[in-house]
Amino acid sequence: MDYFAAVRAFVSAAELQSFSKTAHEMAVKTSTISRYVSELEKDLGIALFNRSTRGLVLTEGGRLFREHAMVALQALDDARQVTSSLNRTPQGVLRVTMPSAFGRRHIVPHLPAFMTRYPAIGLDIVSTDETLNMIEAGIDVAIRIGVLPDSSLMAKRLAPHRRIVCGSPAYFERSGMPHVPEDLAAHDALRLSLLPDDKWSFTRAADALASPEQVLVELRGRLRADDSEAVLELAVAGCGLALLPTWLASTALREGRLQHALPEWEARTGRAEPAVWAVYPPKKIVSSKVRAFVDFYAEVIGEPPYWDDGLALALQP
Predict the structure, then answer these.
(1) Which top CATH class is 3-87?
(2) Does CATH place domain 92-161+274-308 in 3.40.190.10?
(3) Rounded to 10 degrees, what is the CA torsion of 195, 196, 200, 206?
């Protein structure tokens, strides 16, 4: 039995005092309304109506059940209306997780504009480099970087994740500029301990779309860190070469504190192209607050991403 449909049929029949009028009102057969009421009476173990030539008359139990049923139906209608309104006007608390460095540089600075545009949305920001289970952590949207594993989550690509070899002018003056990836074996590499091994893989930029041959370089160097911003600062200080994403290194490149080595080569870790993603749990209808956040940052970041805008000349060593 569809309990809520049966309760609605009962309440309507009590008001109209007729199964046939209720059937017409609900656009179903009269026998359907009669069956609903009979099933309710069987479930409750009590008669809800007395039938007479004048129509339907509520029993004492029927009056009591109607009183409470109307409260329940009104609460259900209110819940549907309030929940449905979330999809019409973006509102409610949005819980977002993001990698710490990327969040500080490219999510948090734009939050004032987002909150001005959507004054009914509250934000709960979780900055962490740990990949959280979105369902268990109650996350609405996650910003993730790299190649996404196969999962049931929905994702929107916000930007490419381009990584380049960088070093300070002082470092290149002291140690020389590498011209091919193999030259890196003779340089001090600043390694990110979050990566699976001490190797960088490269393909020629012009060949990136056509099954390129990869050049794998074994690294050496005395410094390793588990934080990308620490690696950036060490590179700016002249401690070695670093493989950095352009979203992190672009400001230092424009200011001349870093120079781009091997501009004809792209760093790759596999066949799939890494990217910056907005990830959210699968739902038949994506809530308006999630859609507003994802669309806002897709608009702000742009294509190509704003951190790469005008960077072509700055990337030349």
Answers:
(1) mainly alpha
(2) yes
(3) -80
